[in-house]
Amino acid sequence: MSVKVRYDDDHRMILENLSCDCPCDHAQPNQDIYVGKGLIPRLPEYIARRGLGTHCVVVCDENTYKVAGEQVYQVLKNAGYDAILLKFVREGELVPDERTIGELLLTIQPETEFLVAVGSGSITDTCRVNAARCKLPFVSVSTAPSMDGYTSVVAPLILRGTKIHRAGPCPEIIVCDLQVLATAPLDMVRSGVGDVLGKYIAIADWQIGSVINDEPYCPTCGEIVLNAVASLIDNIDEIRNRTEKGMQVLIEGLLLAGITIMIVGHTRAVASVEHNVGHFVEMKMLERYGKAPSHGATVGAATLMVYPAFKRFANEDISGIDPEKRFPMPVEERRAFMRDTWGVEGGETIMAENPGDFLTTEELRRRVRRAKERFGDIKKIIDGMPAYDEIYAAMERLGAKMTLDELGVDPDVVNTAMHCAKDYRTRYSLFKTLDELGLLETYIADYPMTR
Ligand SMILES: [Zn+2]
Ligand SMILES: [Zn+2]
């Protein structure tokens, strides 16, 4: 039976048919997610239902204050909540760095019981890390369908100019008012689309991981994500025009992708090599220029870059590759490679977190043998991916930037990203297969940087 999304009379999202007999442990998401029109006046009722308390800090910036923050604050005050307003004022874009995070930390009072994040990525992540440190629940009032992090348990942040990740809770309540979302700038909408489109790469990589490493794969999560991608493609004009329907399709895609994290307890279904490329590029550009293109924009362009490798591999003849002639990169060489590409601190952290990536010769050869034996299954997975042209056309119709080059990313950064994206996590990907088979270098050398 396939997964169904419906809403109750309060606009609360209900997911049906989540049950699944896959080998993964499943958890039922218990967040209250509301999607609909004119929902902000109902916030006090939603909060009361969840019993979060009455003392809160409402967090916004100048933009989100105008589109929703002011209303959120007033509605809570009028309903008798003891709300403190924190409005970040910045010259340029708000960044979730030590200043921003510290400003919220110092606004939180001993009696504060919960936080209300009115915004998208930066504000939600600022609240998420403070919620974790202060052990407070938080509410998210979304102002843009720009990324899938609303239901995330990790906050990408900036510390001393470097991108870092910190664990934090998922908001207990997420309110997505379609009229508010429609006020988001088109670039933020494009970013959200890019973030969702990348996910079919993640699903294919997960399936390939189940073939090569017997990794448990959840078809229910796979279906949720692939349905999200498909309905985005079907509604791209509605999304571009920011109609109510378009906003609903996009935010549902982003939320549902995030919900798979709640279901299986990891981000396997929502991020793979396309996110690693995106992450690498964001990190390096930030280091070089103090700013980087948005998460979804880099993921979207990275998706178009890595996708052709899948199609090419499906038509590859690997029968002549001799497993006995394959050797893993020597340990010291690999350590140096990781430090050179990801940076000393980043490389060391990744290596410490992913010890499984130092392959023994035996394990490498086992994988090569498996890839050869099961090539037909890998080919079938790739052939089942949505057509590149459909994805390309959707992004083009939206007016999105199609390449990392167009996003202003330096070519050497793109090139290094293609080499080291496979190393960000132990999690298996086609790029690991290519590397293990000795094909990756040729694939990258032949790469079209633009279509
Ligand atoms: Zn993402
Ligand atoms: Zn499952």
Structural class designation: alpha/beta
Shape: globular
Beta-strand content estimate: 5-15%
Question: What small molecules accompany the polymer chains?
Answer: zinc ion
Task: Count every helix, treating DSSP H or I runs of 4 or more residues as helices.
Answer: 20
Radius of gyration (Å): 22 Å
User: What is the domain total for the residues?
Assistant: 2
Query: Can you write the helix and strand succession as a string?
Result: EEEHEHEHEHEEEEHHHHHHHHHHHHHHHH
**Name of the CATH first level of the largest domain:** Mainly Alpha
Termini separation: 39 Å
Q: Flag low-confidence runs.
A: none
Provide the spatial order of strands within the biggest beta sheet. 3-10-7-6-4-5
CATH architecture of the largest domain: Up-down Bundle
Question: What labels describe this entry?
Answer:
451 residues; alpha/beta; Rossmann fold; Dehydroquinate synthase-like, alpha domain; two-stranded antiparallel ribbon; 53% helix; binds zinc ion
